[in-house]
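Q: Structure tokens for this one, please.
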Amino acid sequence: MEQSKNTNLRFLSVTTLNVLITFFELVGGLLSGSLSLISDAFHNFSDTFSIVLSYIANLIGHKKATPKNSYGYRRVEILTALLNSIILILISLFLLFEGINRIQHPETVKGAIMFWVAVVSFIANLGAALLLHVGASNNLNIKATYLHLLSDSLASVGVIIGSIFIYFFNLTWIDPVITILVSLYIAYESLPIIQQTFRILMEGSPDIDVDHVKNDLLAIPEIKDVHHFHSWSINENELMASVHVNLSDLPLSETEKIYSSIENILKDKYNIRHVTIQAECTRGLKKAMCLSSEDETENLKNDK
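A: Here is the predicted structure, written as tokens:
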């Protein structure tokens, strides 16, 4: 409960900071004529939207499981992370095209105003990013929001450097070049999150060596064979699995002990927190460890 309150407080603080940064950069960009400041203001506005979404998803994700949602609501955070990352990609495309257009049609930029606005924005963005850094390592949703803020901080560094060159050397083309570089960086950081969230939503298997799983389970003396193993992720931290094991015709009390051994192995070695086990005598014996839906249908026909 205390951790949830701290997370909520961080989200509220970061949202407030981003609203202020957005307004400050927009005014500064209009006064200085800097595209990189204006684009960063829009980026910060999207961050504010992203943070609000992440906050709502964080609240929903901690709701208790129900009979209709037996795995709970953690997937909401994955959906939000995916949406946030897609928004970042769209923003990066917008910035890229605007930067190219500004190179072709250069405009006057006031380096001094640009510099001081960028310095203040950098401090505020970095402070907001640090507020979320604590939870970014074990929560994909918070990580996506954290990357929003970190990319803003790096963008501000680029704007600061660019403003110095503009002020002293009148190199106005640096402003759109910075915008283009920032857009490429945003896309580079967002694509892996999109790939990871898409894999989770598509029930893709986590990075587990199924042959090692089989060998570990076969090390239990009572298990004659292992097949029909499936693993998937609820979110980036919660792994689930199901597996069929072939046993001798044992009493249920003995089978439960074997189940406990299987659960301990999968939990300790593979971080699988929830496993569904189906015990069989000869059904499915020597079948493949992982089966496609077509294989399963064929097996059912053969078993009949």
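A few notes: The two ends are 51 Å apart (CA to CA). The mean pLDDT is 81.
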